Amino acid sequence: MNKHEPLGRKLDLRHGRVDLSHGSGGRAMARLIADVFHAAFDNDWLRAGNDQAAFDIPGGRMAMTTDGYVVSPLFFPGGDIGKLAVHGTINDIAMAGARPLHMSASFIIEEGFPLADLSRIAQSMGEASREAGVPIVTGDTKVVERGKADGVFISTACVGVVPAGLELSGDKARPGDVILLSGAIGDHGVAVMSKRENLSFETEVLSDTAALHELVAAMVAAAGASIRLMRDPTRGGLAATLNEVAHQSKVGAQIDEASIPVAPQVAAACELLGLDPLFVANEGKLVAIVAPEAADALLAVMRAHPLGARSARIGEIVADEHCFVQMTTRFGGGRIIDWLSGEQLPRIC
Amino acid sequence: MKHVDEYRDGALARGVARRIAEEAQPGRHYRLMEFCGGHTHAISRYGVEDLLPENIRMIHGPGCPVCVLPMGRIDDAIRLAARPEVTLCTYADLMRVPASGATSLMKAKADGADIRMVYSTLDAIAIAEKEPDREIVFFAIGFETTTPPTALAIRLAQKKRLRNFSIFCNHVLTPAAMQAILEAKEGVEIEGFVGPAHVSTVIGMSPYRRFATDYHKPVVIAGFEPLDVIQAVLMLVRQINDGRSEIENQYRRAVTETGNNKAIDEMAEIFELRESFEWRGLGEIPRSALRLREPYAQFDAERRFCVVTLPARDNPACECGAILRGAKRPQDCKLFGTACTPETPMGSCMVSSEGSCAAHWAYGRFRQIERRKAS
Amino acid sequence: MCLAIPTRIVELLPDEMARISLDGVSKVISVALVDNLAVGDYVVLHVGYALARIDEAEALATLELLREAAQLGAAP
Ligand code: SF4
């Protein structure tokens, strides 16, 4: 490095901690941004050092989204809050059938947070964004007093372009449409729970966190016009997603339990905690409601993609003034899948 | 999953269900109460009722410890948690149960009370060891299944000489509640009971004898998997057809005649009967709950913090009592689905997903609609 | 009520504890309430405690009874 260091001493990324000066707009903050964030996200826009990023946009309709990330623990099997933030934000754009272009990230950091963890999170975000081909082009950092945040919160935004003619929307499901699911459910929720204090169980389940835009692009290229809508079943799980769609489109859904893939370890963990995988969060799965005539072709495209290898046709949209999501159980009976009143908590009874 | 999946075989269930349909006599009513929420859960989660003939009706009993806990006791727990020195440890099931004045443990936690969810009494003990300056109070609830783990925690706390650990005891007894249902002045319309699964692994079969001898009601102890429930229904139909009232055991793989003596002894050593205890929806039931014996008084949060339970009244329009006796159905309650929903439960039957009203909300509405469509 | 699940003992630990496994998920539980357990036994697990041993022979007998009843009730 240069003898003349305008930003002062390099940060001690091994043992150092974030303090209030890192959010004060002074030299310490510049140092933090340079050593942690720019180092991890490195791209031309950040190097330009402006408060915003300017870029050309292809013509057509834009999609824009914003998202906030709070997760406990911050590091979990298969991922961490940073990776989750990149993937989740990209997925929100991808669910419009759009191609994500650029994203932003802003950090609210609790005083005392280890720099090593912050840098690990930033590195992981940088890696996820490079892999996805969606650079993080602008950002912000704030530090709050100890106790006013839980480690680190990340908020993001992303813009993308929607291919011409494509207009996916939650109100477009029609009776007869087919419901496709891109893989096994519940992995993310179980991976996170396995590391929560007081639940202490061990499993090899990894979070399924993944950016789905390439899977989506393949589907759109194959039969975009036949896709009514796509959703990623994150919080509230598959159950919440299907209920949202049913209410938005004023239809019902009929699904078949036996066709919904669930990994045995996920099923076992749910059994132990009294949870239902239908309500457990996913971070790398999508639900597509598609025209019946294109369902088989789309399913084949999904299965051909590594992130959709276990895709399945799980049911169909039906006419229903009550907007119920109904399920034929593996056992042969019927059941309503309602939304949850709140976060699913482990049960003892 | 071993000893699980075998009992979730739909084809086998349909075969047994056909057998039930053949044996159930038309013109006869089979009103069967499954006491436990575990059975209610299996019935609604797997859609067991769809497989049963019209004249067999499952009545969802009060066997969910969360549902029967009176609101006043939740109020007590919230007051305990509000004390600055107290950390309240609770099973997550209780977090959302409504208390007086639209509060709950969840809301109390948001207001700053130190409330932590635990999976086991062992977790609460671990917290007490780790944080000797905090008063750790474990919110103990549950039937005879959940009581022995609390008893062991007391023993462990004693052995480890923990001075900062106590329990807020709300353990209740299953047979006492079954008896209260049978003795209700308003009468009962129940022909037989599907008896508790995991409670019976602890207490065995003998505590149920009096229901056969004194009340002439058949009881079949059954496991919590859907095939267990269906088999128990078949066994009850046969008893009713034959005019028998016996205590039978469908859950032989885990329940023995005498139960788990070690667990029974632990409970007897640490706990004694309360004169009377209030059950939400059922009212005061004599000799239906436990409290710590005198030698263990130091572990009793009620004595330690001078807890005085204030009466808290449920909505008078709530029909839980009649529903729990099988006299009414959730849809007979004026509040059902309007003022009372799982988001805003008014009575105990709506509180946990295993309550009758909650089960009907999640599942029965759909059955009613299907029936209407079919007719 | 009383959510409990059959799990297999894979290791006996000191202080009346044991490690159980359920389809690849493992957890340490207390076996203080059940005597004479051995590795390979199935127990009913509730709130971190084994409550009862599952009797293999009785389990098979129950399944046999179920199959019989189902056969008798087989569709004509
Ligand atoms: S619907 Fe609500 S108010 Fe009515 S009986 Fe059920 S729990 Fe009570």
Q: Please give the share of residues in helix of chain A.
A: 25-40%
Domain module tally of chain C? 1
**Shape estimate of chain C:** elongated
Number of helices of chain C: 1
Structure overview:
The complex is a heterotrimer of chains A (349), B (375) and C (76). Chain A is of the alpha+beta class. Chain A has 9 helices and 13 strands. In chain A, the strands form 3 sheets. In chain A, strands 8-10-7-11-9-12-13 form a 7-stranded mixed sheet. Chain A has a 4-stranded mixed sheet with strand order 1-6-4-5. Chain A has a two-stranded antiparallel sheet with strand order 2-3. Chain B is an alpha/beta fold. Chain B has 16 helices and 13 strands. Chain B has helices at 10-23, 37-46, 65-68, 71-82, 105-110, 121-130, 147-159, 174-183, 198-203, 209-213, 226-242, 261-270, 301-304, 320-324, 348-351, 356-374, and strands spanning 30-36, 56-63, 86-91, 115-118, 135-142, 165-171, 192-195, 219-221, 247-249, 271-273, 276-279, 283-286, 290-292. Chain C has a single domain (5-73), classed as SH3 type barrels (Roll), CATH 2.30.30. Chain C has a 5-stranded antiparallel sheet, with no helix packed on it.
